[in-house]
Amino acid sequence: MADQQQEEKEYTCSVWSAFDEMQLCFTVVPQVKHYYRYGTFRNCSEALENFKFCASMKGKPRAEAQRLIKEREEAKYDKKIHDRSSKAVWTLRSQPPPNFPPPV
Questions:
Q1: How far are the Cα atoms of 24, 84, 89 from residue 12, in angstroms, in the given order?
Q2: Is 57 exposed, middle or buried (0-12, 13-18, 19+ CB in 10 A)?
Q3: Which of 13, 28, 40, 45 has the most C-beta neighbours closer than 10 Å?
Q4: Spans of the chain, pLDDT less than 70
């Protein structure tokens, strides 16, 4: 039954949603959050590529667009699973750092 539901799932790509996601990527709060978690600013090229991809799907036949969107979503899911998490940045200390707490 799960296979039947997966086969019936319709894959869509909204240009407006992709545009909103791209615009949100460049705002301050997500950039600061990414810098805090990973130590670098967020690269928004993925959001830009997603917007371009969704825009390019508008001219394709429905079946081909469904196939391409499904392949792209599966690739994004695999990448998400294999990328490191934000927890890998921090190291757990067994003791406080030297000179802690600082003298007043």
A1: 20, 28, 34
A2: buried
A3: 13
A4: 1-8, 84-89
